[in-house]
Amino acid sequence: MADAFPKIKQIKYEGPDSRNPLSFKHYNADEEVEGKTMRDHMRFASSYWHTMRGQGMEIFGWPTMVRPWDDGSNSMEMAFRRIPVFFEFLEKTGIDYYCFHDRDVAPEGRNLRETNRNLDRIVKELKKIQKNSGKKLLWGTSCMFLQPRFMHGAATSPNIEAFVYAAAQVKKAMEVTLELGGEGYVFWGGREGYQTLLNTDMKRELEHLGVFMQMAVDYRKEIGFNGQLLIEPKPKEPTKHQYDSDAAACLNFLRQFKLLDHFKLNIETNHAQLAGHTMQHDLEVAIAAKALGSIDANMGDWQLGWDTDQFPTDLYITTHTMLCLLKMGGFTSGGLNFDAKVRRESYEPVDMFHAHIAGMDTFARGLKIAARIRKDGRLADFVRDRYSSWDSDLGKKIEKRKTSFAELEVLALEIGEIKTNRSGRQEYLETLFNEFI
Ligand code: XUL
Ligand code: CO
Question: For the whole prediction, is pTM greater than 0.90?
Answer without folding.
Answer: yes
